[in-house]
Each structure stands twice: as C-alpha cells, then as structure tokens.
Amino acid sequence: MYAVTQLLSVDEALSRILDGIAPLPAERVKLSDSLGRVLAEDLRAEINLPPFPNSALDGYAVRSDDVAAAAPQSPVQLRVTMDIPAGKPPDSPLTAGQAARIMTGAPLPIGADAVVPVEQTDARWQPDRPIELPSVVQIYRSARPGDGIRQVGDDLRAGQRVAAAGTVLRAQEIGVLASLGHVYVPVVRQPRVAILSTGDELIDIHEPLTPGKIHDSNGYMLAALAATYNAVPLRLPVARDTLDDVRRRFRQALEQRPDVILSSAGVSVGAFDVVRTVLAELGQIDFWRINLRPGKPLAFGHLQGVPFFGLPGNPVSAIVTFDVFVRPVLLRLGNRTDQASTITVITGEDIESDGRRSYLRVKLVSEDGQLKARLTGTQISSALISMVLADGLLIVPEGVTHVPAGTPLPVRLLRYMNI
Ligand code: AMP
Ligand code: MG
C-alpha cells in the first residue's frame, strides 16, 4: 500500500516552486521579430484609424443631395470632374452636380458625403469597354450621407487600448501595430533555459546505437517544450553519471546565464543517481516525492540563485512533470496570464488509479454524440510514443482509486494547445 501522507501534493509543490518566481524585465524588439512574444505593457493607439475619410469601395464619390432621386428607371447624371486613385489626395473639392471616380482606400474629396458603388452606375467595368475616365456618369441608386465611406477613427480611436500587457502577439496584433506605425514593441524578455541530460547510457542523435546505449530524447524534447512556452533553450552536452562530470556540466549550465536549469534523470534512488548529490553540494536542494503519476521523484532547488529542476529520466515522466511544474514557471517568468488548455470530458471506460494525482494518456473519441476519453493503452512512463498517440492527459484527482465510465474529468489537451 502507498502512504499518501508521505507524499507532497502537486498543488503544494507547485505553490512552493512559484513562490520565488517573478516576471522578467521588458526589452524592445523589432515588430518583425515579435511574433509569439509577450507584450510588456498596455499599448494604446496614438492616432485614429483610418487616419482620413476614404472610400470603402470602387465607385463614384457624390453629394448625397444630388442623387436623392436616383433610381434604376430614372438615373441622375453627374459630371465627372476628378479621378482619385488610392494614395493620392484629391486636388479640389466636389461641388453640386459633380462626381469623382474613386477607388477603395482613396481619400474622399471635400464636399462629397457618399460613394456609390460602380455597379450602381453605367460605368461598370466591361471587357470591351475602355477604362478612361468618362465625362458623365449615370447614377442608378440614391445614397445616404456616409454610405460607402470609412470615417476617421472608425476602426480605432486615438487613445483606445489595442492590446493589454501579457498578450501573446499573434499575426493580427502585429498587423494592427504595423498600421499604427510601431517599429519596435516592448516585450517581456524570454526566459533562458539550460537543459542537461544525464546518464551513462545516453548518446547524442548523430551517434549510432551500440549495445546498452540509447539516444538522448529528453534533451531534444525539453528544448522543444521550453521553446513552446516562449523560452530560449540552451542544450548542454550529456553528463556522465559521475560526480565530476555532473559538476562540470552544472558549471557550464551557469555560464549560459540561465533563468531556469532543467536536468533529466539521476534523481531517483539508483546507485548512480548523482544529480541530487551535486545539487545538494553546489546549491540548495528540496527533494520531493510527489503525489503524482507519472513522475513521483522531483528534485527542485537553486543553483547560485537559479531555479533548478531535476526531472525524472523516463521521458513520459519528464514531459508530464515539465507540464505540471516547469510550464507554470516559464509562463510566470514570461508574465503570461493565459490558462492551460483543459476541457472536461466524460470517461469512456472504467479506470483504476492508485490514489496519486494521475495524468493518463487518452484519445478523445466521439461516441453517441458525446466526446469521451479512452485510454491509449499502455501507461508505462518510458513509452514516449504513447504521448504522440494521445490527444490529451486525463487528470484523475488524488485519493481516487476507481473512476466509473461516464465520469466527467478534466483533460489537458496535447493537440492544438498553445499553453
Ligand atoms: P534514471 O532517472 O536515471 O533512473 O532514468 C530512468 C529511465 O529514463 C532510464 O530508463 C533511462 O535510460 C531513461 N532516460 C534517462 N535520461 C534519458 C534521456 N535523456 N532520454 C531518454 N531516456 C532517458
Ligand atoms: Mg540514470
């Protein structure tokens, strides 16, 4: 039997870890380098958008009074006095009886208060017709003041907030900032994450497998996870299971000026688990047995003031403990306020658990018009392929050993997730 009381709860461990974590300072980056970065302050528009009244369509700028009586059977004829392409301010005002040919986005001439679409005139584009400016135009439809016009500040008024501090910049925010003429954007500095794999059995991916050896998958996976959450991953060479080699790699990690250090493996109770020993020697260590499955052993501490995570070696345990403990740290360092992508789903089968908070790999399937969570099969924590096949992690709360089919439980989404 397990003894829950000897294990630290996930929530308690996380709140201890987050206690000392504060957002990183701001820096300025070029707008073209800002995709995925986090805004460091609220941004407000300094100008109106659009900055000048302009035409919303290709047509004829008119005075609405002039065309009040226009109808298909009784068109109104106006004299065409100007041609206004986009980008060219009109050189004279529009007076009674006049019309100006105007293109989408072109500035409206003074005196005009409506634009009639070209389709409502006799000047419709036709393949066999010249595109020269006609001297007169027949208007087939009346227009109210403002029709076909984009007024100053219609999209955005000067002083209005465009995006709040903490926003992760997407293409649409970048587009709006460009329209406001921002060359630089204030963003939160990206966390630097040093990543260290430990183990005598590990070789890098370009080396061929030999008896007893496996490729270092955690190093690449943790680097990709760090990058997913806006951090800059700094991979170090694999450390051997000796005190000297681990010490050397820890020092190398510190030389990278990291905001967080991640190591994987070497933190359980094996004879060669030297990470714990070196962390205790060079820094401060809290070693916790956490009420979590997979991923019970977690070493957390500080190395010269830098938060240090000794993650488990089994790849599934490493990815789950990253998601549960490291991801919130990176989000807080990056000053992000968004919440994890978790939805509630009904279990599609009876599930046994061992009383620890469990993150079980599941597929989401549609059955009888309902979304249900079904186990992917093996839950062994060395089989990383199960994380590839899973749509999400079903979270079984602590203290629960039997979950009957049909129980609603949270699922942490692994596909299409942003945070
Ligand atoms: P340990 O925590 O050192 O006992 O390792 C637990 C398991 O994880 C062992 O099967 C290791 O071979 C495996 N493992 C440790 N580090 C890695 C790594 N970087 N990539 C893939 N598997 C690993
Ligand atoms: Mg090992």
Q: Please tell me what the overall shape is.
A: elongated
Number of domains: 4
Taking all residues together, what is the mean pLDDT? 94
- According to CATH, the homologous superfamily of the largest domain is MoaB/Mog-like domain
User: Which oligomeric form is depicted?
Assistant: single chain
Helix content: 10-25%
- Contiguous runs where pLDDT drops below 50 for at least 5 residues: none
- Name the CATH architecture of the largest domain: 3-Layer(aba) Sandwich
Ligands bound, unique: adenosine monophosphate, magnesium ion
Q: Give the biggest sheet.
A: 6 strands, mixed
Write a structural description:
By secondary structure, the protein is α/β, with parallel strands linked by helices. It folds into 4 domains: 150 residues, Molybdenum Cofactor Biosythetic Enzyme, Chain A (3-Layer(aba) Sandwich); 49 residues, Molybdopterin biosynthesis moea protein, domain 2 (Alpha-Beta Complex), CATH 3.90.105; 97 residues, Molybdopterin biosynthesis moea protein, domain 3 (Molybdopterin biosynthesis moeA protein, domain 3), CATH 2.170.190; 72 residues, Beta-clip (Beta Barrel), CATH 2.40.340. Helices cover 18% and strands 29% of the residues. It contains 7 helices and 27 strands. The strands form 8 sheets. The chain has a 6-stranded mixed sheet, sandwiched between helices. The protein has a 5-stranded mixed sheet with strand order 7-4-6-5-8, with no helix packed on it. A 5-stranded mixed barrel has the order 21-24-23-25-27. Helix 1 crosses helix 6 and helix 3 runs parallel beside helix 6. The two termini are 36 Å apart. It binds adenosine monophosphate (AMP) and magnesium ion. Adenosine monophosphate (AMP) binds next to helix 3.
